[in-house]
Design brief:
Blueprint (H helix, E strand, L loop, with lengths): L4 E5 L4 H12 L3 E8 L17 H14 L3 E5 L1 H17 L6 H17 L7 E3 L4 E5 L5 E5 L16 H4 L2 E2 L7 H10 L21 H7 L7 E4 L5 E5 L22 E6 L4 E5 L5 E12 L8 E6 L7 E7 L5 E10 L6 E6 L2 E13 L3
Parallel strand pairs: 1-2, 1-4, 2-3, 4-7, 8-11
Antiparallel strand pairs: 5-6, 8-9, 10-11, 12-15, 12-17, 13-14, 13-16, 14-15, 16-17
Helix pairs in contact: 1-2, 1-6, 3-4
């Protein structure tokens, strides 16, 4: 890549910090940017394993100072609430389990922030994601898994389209996490040993139930039932449950029970055995594609949750635009509200948002 002016989204973590350092070392003009996305309550415990907090913004500023690059903080709190937090609340209220990280990437980082790069005199955005972008012989941009299989983040990036891929770079996508840590030490970055973010950034102390209820999601009671509709217990709100959950059901049973479905209309939580979690496939909507929509039957692999090893599948677009995916072997805990991402080996083909599971035959 020729020398460019590049905006680096700096979260205050080691990956984005090393990304900025590598680009500067390569001779690019680097501008560091941190996003202020939410207000962390004063009562929240400090040092949580989140990203984008005030502490993280300060860490990003320290890294920028060490590297000698300009640094700017952009306040996107209101837009983040509208585009990510409100969606999170609505999905839980509807009995689905949302994926706010994928929404943030799609709508904020590679939406709002990418659009803002021009105002900073740049047309390239860099982030610390573990993913790769390559241009094929036909000139199309391909989104590929990160080299470190244990850190690959393409599951959260499936919504990226050609115009976004053309203006984005992932400097650490071809590295292993171990190498990134070593580079952070080599560059003498103040975040070289910082722990990784693992929690949802805007939820204090990772207590999502309290966050939902304090944000207005009603704790409406209902029944816990088996697959045949027999009442086994009661609950205080469907937002407290997610498909695949085992703990905290409050139902005595001879064998372990799991949440197999959440029924919003009847406010019922359906539970069953591990075998009853198995699904033959799924339906999904709001599909997006790296190059273009599927034509005919796709045979490849898919992931239905982050860090799941992709499993063989077949997929096709239905007449109404819905995506139908069938697994080669039944999969557990297909969860409405999560994403299904299609892969052709290491290449992301596209993805969609799961609306319904297709149960395996018993």
């Amino acid at each position: 890549m020729s020398k460019r002016r590049i905006v680096v989204a700096m979260s205050g973590g080691v990956d984005s910090s090393v990304s900025a350092a590598l680009l500067k070392e390569q001779g690019h003009e680097v501008i560091g940017v941190s996003l202020q996305l939410y207000e962390r309550p004063a009562a929240a415990q400090p040092g949580g394993r989140t990203c984008c907090s005030l502490t993280d913004v300060m860490d990003a500023g320290r890294v920028a100072k060490r590297l000698g690059i300009p640094f700017e903080v952009i306040d996107l709190r209101q837009r983040f609430k509208e585009l990510v937090i409100d969606d999170f609340l609505a999905e839980y209220a509807a009995g689905r389990t949302p994926n706010p990280c994928a929404r943030c990437n799609d709508r904020v980082k590679f939406g709002l922030l990418l659009d803002m790069t021009a105002s900073l005199g740049a047309d390239i955005l860099a982030t610390g994601h573990y993913a790769r972008i390559e241009r094929d012989a036909a000139g199309s941009y391909q989104l590929l898994k990160g080299l470190d299989a244990g850190k690959d983040q393409t599951y959260f990036l499936f919504g990226m389209k050609q115009h976004q891929l053309a203006r984005t770079v992932f400097p650490v996508g071809g590295l292993e996490k171990r190498q990134v840590r070593e580079l952070a030490a080599k560059f003498n970055l103040p975040v070289a040993q910082k722990q990784e973010s693992q929690e949802i950034c805007f939820i204090p102390d990772n207590d999502y139930v309290e966050f939902l209820e304090e944000s207005g999601v009603a704790a409406s009671p209902g029944e816990i039932v088996d697959r045949e509709g027999r009442k086994l217990g009661s609950h205080n709100g469907i937002h407290r449950y997610t498909v695949g959950q085992r703990r905290g059901l409050g139902v005595a049973w001879p064998e372990p029970l799991y949440v197999t479905a959440i029924e919003r209309e009847s406010s019922r939580v359906v539970v069953g055995t591990r075998q009853e979690l198995l699904c033959a496939g799924l339906l999904a909507d709001q599909a997006t594609w790296t190059e273009g929509p599927l034509t005919g039957l796709f045979r490849g692999s898919c992931s239905i949750r982050y860090r799941q090893r992709p499993v063989p599948c077949e997929a096709e677009l239905l007449a109404g635009g819905e995506l139908r995916v069938r697994f080669a072997t039944p999969q557990q805990a297909v969860t409405p509200g999560q994403a299904v991402v299609l892969y052709d080996q290491d290449r992301v083909v596209g993805g969609a948002w799961i609306t319904e599971e297709m149960r395996a035959e018993r």
